[in-house]
C-alpha cells in the first residue's frame, strides 16, 4: 500500500527551482569541507513527530490527516512502519530515530509490551535490508505513562526505578538488534515540582547509578553505540536535573560518566534554558562532548517546547559553524525533532517541512564553511585576545605568573587601552555571506 502516492522522490533542483517538492540548497552529493552534504549533515527523521503526532494541543483535538490512522493496535504500528520507509525513501534521508512506544503499543504488562516490540523490530529490520536508511538512535519513553508521574530513574518509588531499568534494558537490546549508532537518554520527568517533598541528593545519586547500570549492560551485550544525554531545563517539571549542557557535564563528572557520554543538543531546549543554540553546541564542543543534534527551533514569543522545523538561516549557520569546528558530528546526526504546525495537517506537509529544514541546514553548512575558509570570525577572536599570546598575558596562560607579578605589572600601567568589539560589523559580515549564498556566489 502507498501512503504518499502523490509524492515522487525529492530531488535537488537548485535555488531557481519553483517546485516546492524539491531541494533548493541541499544537494546530498555536493562536497563541502571535504565531505558530501549527506555525509556532513547526516539528516534523520523523528518517528514520533512524523508518524505518531496527531497535532493535538491543550486547546484542541488532533488535526493530522494520516491514512494509516484508520488502523489501530499492532495493525497501526505495522502500517506506520510501511509509511515510514516509504517516506524515508522518497525523502532520501540516511537516518531515523524512535522511542519504543513510537513503534509499538504498550501492552497490559511489560512482557506483552516487549512482545509487541519484538514483532515490530523484526519488521523494521526486514525493511532495513532493502533501505539506505539506518537507525541514528533509539530511546525509551519513560515519561508518558502514569507510572512515571513522579519520575523514572529519579522516582521516589523503587518499583518505578526497576520498571524504568527494565525498559532501558530492552531498549539497549533493540538498539543492538537494529544497529543503532547512538542511544539517547532524555529524562522527560527526571526532575521535581518542588523541593518541599524532594530528596534531591538521593534522586541524583539514583540517576547516576541508573546510567552506570546502563553502561555496564551495554558493555555486557556488546552494544557499542555512543551514549547521549539530551538536556532540557523545564516542562513538564519546574526543574529538570539535566537543565543544560553545563549542568549535565557537572553531573557526568560527579558520577564518573564523562568518558561514557556525550550530548544530544536540541535547539528548542537551549532557548528554554535561556541560551542560544550555538551556546549549547559551543559549550559541548570545547569540552569534547558534542555528540548529536535535535534540529528544530522554538517560537520566540512562546515559553514552551514548540518544536518547529528549523528555517532560521542565521541559527543554522552558527550551528553548523560549531559542528564544522567539531570536525562534524561523528556518529551523531541532525535529527528533525520537529513537528508541522497544527494548521499544516496534510501528508504532503510532512515532506514540505523536512525539505525546508534540510535546505536551511544546507545553507548553514555552506555559509559556515565559507566563514571558516575566509578566517572571518577566527581572525577577529584571535586579535581580540592577542594580549594573551605575549608578555604578561602569555605568562598568565602558561601558569608562570602569580598575584605578586601581576601587581607589579598593574602598578606600571598608565592606562588600559581597549579595542572596539565591532559586533555590528561582525553581524553585517555574516549577513553578507548569507546573501552571497542566496546569490550562489
Strand content: 5-15%
Overall, the morphology is globular
String of helices and strands: EEEEHEHHEHHEHEEHEEHEHHEHEHHHHH
Structural class: alpha/beta
The radius of gyration over CA amounts to 24 Å
Helix content: 40-55%
> How does the major sheet shape up?
8 strands, parallel, barrel
Distance between the termini: 44 Å
Number of DSSP helical runs: 16
Structure summary, number of beta strands:
14
Q: Catalogue the unreliable spans.
A: none
Indicate the mean pLDDT.
Answer: 96
Strand order of the largest sheet: 5-6-7-8-10-12-13-14
Salient structural properties:
single chain; 441 residues; alpha/beta; eight-stranded parallel barrel; two-stranded parallel sheet; 16 helices; 11% strand
Explain what this protein looks like in three dimensions:
With 441 residues, this protein is an alpha/beta fold. 46% of the residues lie in helices and 11% in strands. The chain is built from 16 helices and 14 strands. It has an eight-stranded parallel β-barrel, surrounded by four helices. The chain has a two-stranded parallel sheet with strand order 1-2. It is globular, with a radius of gyration of 24 Å. The chain starts with 10 loop residues before the first strand and ends with a helix. The mean pLDDT is 96.
